[in-house]
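Hi R.,

As promised, here are both runs. First protein below:
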Amino acid sequence: MLEKPNLPDSRIVDCLRTDYGLDAVRLSFLPLGADRDTAVYRAVTGDATPYFVKLRRGDFDETTVIVPRLLGDLGIRQIIAPLFTRSNRLWASLDPFRLTVSPYVDGLNGYEVELHDHHWVDFGRALKAVHTAVMPSTVIERIPRENYSAQWRERVRHFQALIDTTTFSDPVAAELAAFLRRQHRIVSELVSRAERLASFLQTRSLPFILCHADIHAGNILIDTSGQLYIVDWDTLILAPKERDLMYVGGGLFGGRRSPQEEEALFYQGYGQVAVDPVALAYYRYERIVQDIAAYCEQILLTDEGGADRQEGLRQLTGQFEPHAVIDVAFQSEARLPPEFRPQ
């Protein structure tokens, strides 16, 4: 959320004091992220200790805080574990939000600062630790499972039909609609390719593991001492490992290195593993389809959001630029067996 929510700071300070026993003397809104339902703050207590405060509006899945807490307890140092409340929970209620607190790590994300060779290796090592972590069955049972749903593909088709018959008065919505009309063929191709590969994957039994599921450069944090952290666990899912591995070499780390360079360094830390090319290609297509649907919902169905709307438009149109994620997704076809390539 790039614009501060309509929530008095005093309510957040009171919640920190009541639920966490933290007396915040300073609270600063941080305009970070593209999620219009998530707001983040930096709180500082009287002893000058900083904390990261996250407010999540709408559906809240407790596993998104339970899992990083458990991963941190397993000794995975690249995880910033959330803190417990006085009542031994990992979140507090602050209507209409759920509030969580974690130690504040001062740093920059992977779009703002270049990942050096050792960061890529460390990233691979950390993700392998996540993928092989043993979670309690009571937690695993609560995490969503991949089913290759057509939900997002159907939403994109709906929006394609909507923009063909609707005139939008809001400038950002009008610009997005005009852009998607120009890109109609490419968008339709992304949807159809994702659908074809999903149909095949539904007939297979790839092993499911714990996946972060949104591990792009924006969710990699490099602190002031050069340490790497993986942040933002709101999209947890049990899925084939390719759900996470598709980000490496997928055009989602700022384009400072070639896909081959990213993969070579990452797998030094992760370890060599057989990557399923069909699953990899599917997830690269499906992620773009989901982004198109999500940004259309944000921009076309409401005029709310302020700066978040313009940023959403920028992020979506950027995916169509040369050498960006759409080009990379289409290039993934080269790794597919011949029977899966478009005729």
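And here is the second one, sequence first, then its structure tokens:
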Amino acid sequence: MIQRLILAALVACLMLPPAAAQAAVEPTGRIEIAQMMGRWYEVARVPNALQKDCAAGASDWTPQAAGFAVVQSCRKAGPGGSLKTWKAKATVSDPRTNAKLKMSFFGGVVSQDYVVVDHKPDQGWLVLATANGKYLWLMSQKPVLPAAIRNQALARIRQLGFDIGRLEFPLPARS
């Protein structure tokens, strides 16, 4: 129980806004919720404490009566390392776009607002960010994005005003 409280406190600190004010992140358009379902693989991320030393990150989205269940996972210390998982519940907080989500972790102890900033279903990727813009993830429906598509996604992230120099590219899952 103590470990869970410590972990919740660490996640809460991770979710605090940065000292310098950041602009609120807005979605570029409406998304269809059905397109969010399934497994999404992490291609790139802004470093954060919860995912320190994580590789082969993934998020599994499944519908529930009141929103979605999200199971996030990664492998510690490399793609062959021990599996780390954490669960969240997500709800749409802006039905106009379906692109703003509230996620709660650890039984509702910690919650965070996220925005699906951009989504290219025809290319199989999306950009997810915290609403304050501090953290960002490039996610793919395949374990590895082809280089040309990855470069297009990174160019789009830069075009949206994010610093792609802050991104790290964790190793994908082993085949």
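A quick note on the second one: The mean pLDDT is 85. Let me know what you think.

Best,
J.
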